[in-house]
Amino acid sequence: MSIEIRNVNKQFGDFTALDDVSVxxxxxxxxxxxxxxxxxxxxxxxxxxxxxxADSGHILFDDIDVTHVPVQKRHxxxxxxxxxLFRHKNIADNVAFGLNLLPxxxxxxxAEIQKRVSELLExxxxxxxxxxxxxxxxxxxxxxxxxxxxxxxxxxxxLLDEPFGALDAKxxxxxxxxxxxxxxxxxxxxxxxxxxxxxxxxxxDEIVIMNHGIVEQVGxxxxxxxxxxxxxxxxxxxV
Length: 239
Ligand SMILES: Nc1ncnc2c1ncn2[C@@H]1O[C@H](COP(=O)(O)OP(=O)(O)OP(=O)(O)O)[C@@H](O)[C@H]1O
Hints:
The protein has a six-stranded mixed beta sheet with strand order 6-7-8-3-9-10, with helices on both faces. It folds into two domains: 1-75 and 156-239, P-loop containing nucleotide triphosphate hydrolases (Rossmann fold), CATH 3.40.50; 85-155, no CATH class. It is α/β, with parallel strands linked by helices. The protein has helices spanning 41-49, 91-101, 110-123, 139-151, 169-186, 197-203, 221-226, 231-237, and strands at residues 3-12, 15-25, 30-34, 56-61, 64-65, 76-80, 157-161, 189-194, 206-211, 214-219. It contains eight helices and ten strands. Adenosine-5'-triphosphate binds next to helix 1.
């Protein structure tokens, strides 16, 4: 699914969080929003999700205007740093959460849900933990389960907000390679927020550099590093 962000503006009181932001996110790619703290990355991601609404401008999914469509109807998978696993549910029930929430006519049978959970646990390379509880897993394993949960409802768009933010540097590095591989295998259009440049360069097909609510430049890691479009980009990327 392609995503088009057209002339999006967002104010919080007198503060301009997004100033006429336009970005195209190509189908099947992993696009990263990168920029210093407070530049508007999370606000933009939340507007794409439908968790927040723009003051003006449009969001299009596959050329369909979803600007006013609520989050539940956008068919998005979420992997957010602060959207933790449910502590009192076992791993299988955590992964099945979105499926169990579906309206009756769309919900798979119990057996189908069980099968899907097994497939997802295989995909994230944790087939043995179905009956465990979140506290029995490491931080990195929990984030892999969070991705399985996000993928359960077969989303057409995956949104990741600092997905590895709470992990130590070594695990972060392992998981970014893992994420890149899974993304290539599945080819789901994905948008990730990070302030970690190394992470952005390592996993992204495209990077959107933001600063004070505006988009400074969009390009591949190589394009940005070899041809920074503004003094901000060259200073920010240190090139
Ligand atoms: N609900 C809100 N009410 C008031 N101000 C807000 C609100 N949400 C965000 N802001 C402000 O908008 C600006 C952009 O916030 P946003 O979270 O989008 O930045 P960010 O680039 O994701 O930063 P970080 O990397 O620190 O998370 C910040 O200055 C923030 O304080």
